[in-house]
Amino acid sequence: MSSIYTLNLTALLALNTALFYARQTKSHSPTPSPPPADSNVKDSTTTKKSTSNPPQHASKIHSLLSSPLAPFLSVYTLVMTSDWLQGPYLYPLYTKTHSLPPSTIPLLFTTGFLSGAISGSFIGSLADTHGRKTACLSFCMIYALSCLLTTLSSSLPVLFLGRVLGGLGTSLLFTVFESFLVSDFKARGLEGRLGETFGVMSTLNSLVAIGSGVGSEWMVGVTGTNRSPFWLAAGVLVVAGGVIQVVWKENYAQPPEGAEKKTDEKKTEERSLLGVVMSDPRILALGLSTTVFEGSMYLFVFFWAPALQSSSAAGTSLPYGVIFAAFMASTLASSLIFGKITERLPFSSLLLSLLGVSSLCFFLAASNTSSSQFTFWVFCLFEACVGMYFPTMGYLKGKLIEDGVRSQVYGFLRIPLNVFVVVALLITGRMEGDKAFVGVFRVCSGLLLLAAGGFWGLVVRRRGVDV
Predict the structure, then answer these.
(1) pTM (2 decimals)?
(2) Distance between CA atoms of residues 453 and 461, nearest Å
(3) Are the C-beta atoms of residues 50 and 190 closer than 8 Å to each other?
(4) Phi/psi of residue 454, each to 5°?
(5) Any idea where the Major facilitator superfamily (MFS) profile domain is (predicted)?
(6) Which of 143, 194, 141 is nearest to 167 (CA)?
(7) CATH class of the domain at 70-255+271-460
(8) Mind listing the pLDDT tens digit for each residue in 291-324?
(9) How far apart are CA 117 and CA 62, in angstroms?
């Protein structure tokens, strides 16, 4: 059984190699020289990058890493490394190292999601008011402390505190960094490169996930303890915090144009968080899509292993590390072709397609419980959707949400997401049998289809929407 999954991973890595090679080959083809930059612009290097034709796709990672955007991308790589290092070993740490009873572990995970839901109601407002750089530094400190508390003691109060901080850190991770990036791009006049940059971030994230998975497994093998990936993650966060402190410049929420001419009462009304979300049906559609897609993704993380185990022969031991690497290779492959797809398909239409294909994946996974290979490839297809979803959603949110309430809205959109996952975990925790995932996958399939319909009606069908 292990050999077939190793072969699958080899095939996916070969596909990624071919995609890299194809992009590199195209980047060597001659392209027209860009027009000279305006000599009146202060930063001519930035102007050339933002006004000329986009670089060939094969050189995008190199061009961004060597540009003024490199400080952000380097920090992004570090913080995502810290997150991926922990993922594969959180459950083994609880079960084997801390010897916790099975009934306690779902409560710990639920605590983390509840913490994320509650913090999402205020974390964005604090970031917009006190600065996104400050919020990113706070993330590094909070998440590093969460790593240490998770490993230092088997005491339940300490472990629950670790999950509370972990939920708060996750809320910051997926709120303030993206908000900082979009605001920084607008300040630099690089808003037109948002889609390209989010695509590069997706590629980097996939590469980091593969490397972190292999690295954490190697560390556990060398040190003999499941705690070591968490210690390394804390160290990586210290480095990331140092780079942020030294290199980054602070940015704050910018009020809407003309807001200074309005009364304080009118400002409060127009900048009301709920008012911003409810007044624009496109943001409502993004919120529904975020809740359902990312909620389904988190549930997938919990249930892919029992789903594959259920469709495998009795007594079969699955190579979970190899399978995880294969999933990450699938996300990498999709991120490599993301740029080509967005050259031909609007971002709104792409998100609609991703919701539809993901719905089909969960339906097929719930309908088939006898072929592990069929289920595996369906899961790889879903992971490919994940690889395109995050840059697509990042671009759409950057286009549709005003800067003055950006972090607040990003945090607000994560509240229903966390509530959705908590409710699903509590319900499935009461299910008996080893095929509880079937019902979960069916519900996810239906909700994804519902989200696709809502997004089509509120965004794609609308005329004059430049997304």
Answers:
(1) 0.70
(2) 10
(3) yes
(4) -65, -40
(5) 63-463
(6) 143
(7) mainly alpha
(8) 899 989 988 987 887 788 787 776 666 777 678 8
(9) 37
